[in-house]
Amino acid sequence: MEKHEINGPVHPSSSGSNGHNVRSPAHQPNFNSRAVQEALEHLASVDLSELFNEAKTEYCRATRDLRRCGRYVKYVLNSCGHASLCAECCQRCDLCPICRIPLASGNNRLQLCLFDECIDAGLISRRYGDIFQNKEDRDDQINADVQRLNSFFDVSLENNLVSLVCHYVTDICMDETAVSSDAITALLLDEKVVKDWVKRKFKNITTELQQIYYLKVGETEKSLCLLHKYSAYLASLSSILEVLESSFKGRPLAQLHDLHHLQESILKTKQHLEIIMWCIRHQFLEHVRSRHANFTSWHNLVRERKSAATARAWPDVVDRSADSTRQDGSLFIEDALANLDIEQACDQELGEESYFAFLLKDSSSFSRSKIEGLRGCYPFESLQAAVDILFLCGSSDLVVAKQAIFVYYLFDRHWSRPEEEWRDIVDDFATSFGINRHSLLESFIFCLLDDHTDEALQESFQLLPEISGPTTHPKIARVLLERQNPEVAHMVLRWSGRDDGSQLVSLSEAVTVVWVKVECRLLTEAFTYQRMLCTKVREKNFKYGPSEDGQCRCWMDWTEILVSELCCLCIRRNLVDRIIELPWNSDEEKYIHKCLLDCATDDPSSANGSLLLVFYLQRYRYVEAYQVSLKLRNL
Fold first, then answer.
1. How far is residue 448's CA from residue 471's CA, in Å, rounded to a whole number?
2. Strand partners of residue 68
3. How many CA atoms lie within 13 A of 595 on its CB side?
4. Which intervals of the chain are annotated as region Disordered (predicted)?
């Protein structure tokens, strides 16, 4: 059996009830002492096939007056390793009552059991160990032995020996040959004992966190060291659950779902804790002045931004019902929170009780998010509300998106104030959580583009060249276009490399590119772009078939929307005389015909109907020209 590495103690927790060792910080073991080092060395090197035997409570089997002694056994026999005799009976016996092997001579007969060695070293509470020495406490033998095994797991967790617990799962619990007819041993060999320990340990940690979170801002700073240790504990529990989840493959879905829910709760609690620690270091920004006078003024400002975004949203020139991803008139922050809202809705459908619901210092904002959705919660009422709502909602996999939203919140809270007052705060957050400069500037630009003032727009122009590239958010170009800056939008598209039709994009992005090119009077480029893109979609459909993802399902749908978009935009910009000269194919020209004729029907005084007539005359198609002429006369 491999020896588990000792990296030094993390911190023995004050674990509370349920049979876990309770130890106040004033009574921590001396990790420099020989007894502690030897106990940890013994635990790290113990054969895991014997660990569950070490966890079982043993009583003396020596015979006294025709009956067993029955005293609690603290020692194992050096000759055979059995914990079968108490210290007194060992002096009176010559053979082990279990295997009948002769005992060693002299004083070298006994050594402490691992459990009692940990008690003597102070790694496990002595008060907790005393309960097994009383005969009246032996009724619940199964629970007692499980608690002893849990104590070994506690010591492992608190001293960076979590690999011992992971190997216990893989090498013992998942070993098909490790079976026993004894009920106690069978339970100790079951991986459920590890899962239940993780669940209890997590509950105890969250109870401790709740007490710290409820302290005043000035008092929480003293608990930073303890919070760092709890964060390490949560990371270790998460790694144990990963091992358990891999071992549960092929099991009933209910078991996997329970593990997944527990893992999600642990990860979200850890992510929440890390942000809380950052907030504590900066005293929850109480010393940093916000640019908003109060929450009400900030809330009204966000409503103004929303109204401005809705008012400038691009016109509904074609029916885009097939493209459900478009959210015209929405802010960047609304779209980002909407992604978290989807995960929150899934959690509500499951109707599960949250492990971390009581971590909330102020539950009113969290309740508001449950009722109104996350999109309706911005701006957050306070920094604490922002941390609670973002990092205790949605999937733990979205932690990067949550951090980006939090950075957006910090920029929105401070950016128009002098930079020396707040910039170091944002930079420290980025450094603490590994956020690179590109992501930091991207969140800042989203904040600036959501702001409806010209000052914010001009500042975004200075930063756009630095972040523009293949990963540029496609909505940036659309917002710039809606704010009457097509040239800047065109440059962003050029920098992103998605404006030449060489790669497939979403239909919404394709419409944006067409619109930008039309606004920049680049009609030939717009025509070539839609032709190349529709050709790629057509080739993909022939190879893989139409997609079933809720988007347009065939290349004809793409052709109809892109060509109709281009034509309708040219009608609005009085550029029809230029597009009728382009080399449209038969699939495309029917949508040109429909758009121009519909426009002439809606406004008979316009010249669009006559230009449609010219369209056919230029191509020497006199029959179609005559039919158009008849329809125009009827109008």
1. 19
2. 63
3. 26
4. 1-28
118, 145, 224, 500, 576 from 278: Cα distances, Å? 35, 40, 9, 44, 58
Cα–chain center distance at 356: 15
Residue 108: Cβ-neighbour burial (10 angstroms; 0-12, 13-18, 19+): exposed
Chain length of the chain: 635
The pLDDT of residue 229 is above 90: yes
With CA atoms as reference, report the closest residue to 131 among 16, 21, 14: 21
Beta strand spans in 165-324 (E): none
Per domain, the residue ranges of the chain are 25-58+113-280, 331-453, 578-635
Mean pLDDT of 98-104: 87
For 351, residues 6+ apart whose C-beta sits below 8 A from its C-beta are none
Contact (Cβ atoms closer than 8 angstroms) between residue 103 and residue 79 = yes
CB 377 within 8 A of CB 337: yes
Chain centroid to CA 538: 37
**Cα 472 off chain centre by:** 22
Here the tokens at position 116 are: 């009692």
Contact 30, 36 (CB under 8 A): yes
DSSP 474-518: HHHHHHHHHTT-HHHHHHHHHHHT-SSSSS---HHHHHHHHHHHH
State yes or no: pLDDT of 275 exceeds 60: yes
Q: Which residue has the higher pLDDT, 474 or 256?
A: 474
The pTM score is: 0.84
- Residues in Cβ contact with 415 at an 8 Å cutoff, skipping those fewer than 6 apart: 291, 422, 444, 447, 448
Please give the structure tokens belonging to residue 91: 């002096």
Give CA–CA dist 256/33, Å, rounded: 43
Q: Which tokens in the block code for residue 507?
A: 């239909």
| Beta partners for residue 552, in sequence order | none
Cα 570-572-577 angle, rounded to 5 deg: 40
DSSP string for 397-438: GGHHHHHHHHHHHHHHHHTTS-HHHHHHHHHHHHHHTT--HH
Q: Are 572 and 317 in contact (CB under 8 A)?
A: yes
What is the 3-state composition of the chain as percent helix, strand, coil, each rounded to the nearest 5?
65, 0, 35
Question: Contact 483/312 with Cβ under 8 angstroms?
Answer: yes
CA–CA separation, 307 and 300 (whole Å): 11
Instruction: Specify the 3-state DSSP secondary structure of 112.
Output: strand
Exposed / middle / buried, residue 133 (Cβ in 10 Å: 0-12, 13-18, 19+): middle
Given a cut of 70, whether residue 372 has pLDDT beyond it is: no
Looking at residues 151-174, what average pLDDT do you find?
92
Share above pLDDT 90 across residues of the chain, in percent, rounded to a whole number: 45
Which residues are paired to 6 by β-bridges? none
Name the residue with tokens 């998605």.
Answer: 498
